[in-house]
Amino acid sequence: MEKKMRGLKVGLMVGLVSLMATPAFARSISFKEAGTALWVFIIIGAVIVLLQLIPAAILFFSFIGTATTMAFKKEKKVEEEVVLPGAEPVTVKK
Questions:
Q1: pTM higher than 0.85 for the full model?
Q2: Distance between CA 15 and CA 21 in Å, rounded?
Q3: What CA–CA distance (Å, rounded) separates 5 from 77?
């Protein structure tokens, strides 16, 4: 019973929200009577959003660099010297 009521409430809320999101209920936004505080708020918001592009660009180009390095990386033959106790140094090729 409780689950049924909860589901009914959720369904009603989703229906009302989707109804309010339709163009029939939308109103146009007019900045004619907007005050100075609104414009300051919009400008500061735009600056904050634009400042987020700096770390986003750094991460993006870092990802591109890493991906291309991994894609085009050629394997180098590494030679290591292994010293076993009581034996002479031996060169091992990988």
A1: no
A2: 10
A3: 68
Q: How many residues does the chain have?
A: 94
51: which 2 tokens?
């400042």
* Residue position matching structure tokens 């986003």: 56
Amino acid at 25: F
Chain segment 39-94, per-residue pLDDT in tens: 889 899 999 999 999 999 999 999 999 999 888 877 666 566 666 666 565 566 65
**Residues 51, 17: Cα–Cα separation, whole Å:** 33
- Per the CB < 8 A criterion, the answer to whether 82 and 92 are in contact is yes
User: For the chain, what is the largest distance between any 2 Cα atoms, rounded to a whole number of angstroms?
Assistant: 90
d(CA 88, CA 94): 19
Residue 10 carries which side chain, given as an amino acid letter? V
Contact present, 41 and 31 (Cβ < 8 Å): no
Compute the chain's Rg from CA coordinates: 32
